[in-house]
Amino acid sequence: MTPVPYLFFNGTCRDALNFYGQIFGTEPDLLTADGLPPEFDVPEDRKAWIMHGSLKVGNGLLMGSDNVMGTSDAMTGCAVQMDLPTAAEAKDLFEKLVDGGEVTMAFAPTFWSGGFGTLTDKFGIRWMVGTHEPPAKVG
After folding, report:
1. Residues 99-114: b if buried by 16+ CB within 10 A, e if exposed
2. Which one of 18, 42, 54, 131 has the minimum C-beta count within 10 Å?
3. How many CB atoms lie within 10 A of CB 25?
4. pLDDT greater than 90 at residue 27
5. Are residues 53 and 28 in contact, defined by beta-carbon separation less than 8 angstroms?
6. Quick one: pLDDT at residue 138?
7. Tens-place pLDDT, residues 68-88
8. What is the CB neighbour count within 10 angstroms for residue 89?
């Protein structure tokens, strides 16, 4: 079993998954809300929104959708965690994800890792990016 983050957006899912796809080198699979049966009564201005999307990321998957029916609260209390083999790879990913977003903890070596940082991307998704590489030994 593998947990899969499912991200919710308010009309920006297509842009977000395409942005992540450029970063991770994959193409998202996207289904729009205009494919829902009529009984769902999707508002006309939301029919092009994403009902369900998925994006392959390494051996994992990110999934997401827009808040088509207006029933999802903003994402709080969680973040997408990414661990990369080296601090250089992790820093590169961090810098790509933060483009247009906000750094909440600058990427830097820590006592537990050769590099770690946190950010909120331009779509409001929080990320934690680090490496399996151990911290440099002092002394």
Report:
1. eebeeeeebeeeeebb
2. 18
3. 9
4. yes
5. yes
6. 62
7. 887 777 767 899 999 999 999
8. 16
Q: Which of 65, 67, 125 is nearest to 101 (CA)?
A: 125
Tokens 């947990």 label which residue?
3
Rounded CA-CA distance 91/107 in Å is 7
Q: What pTM was computed for the model?
A: 0.91
Average pLDDT estimate for 100-108: 98
Alpha helices (H) along 2-86: 13-24
- Contact criterion met (CB below 8 Å) for 47 and 40: no
Neighbours of 1 (CB within 10 A): 3
Sign of CA dihedral 54, 94, 117, 126: negative
Decide the pairing of beta strands 50-57 and 29-32: antiparallel
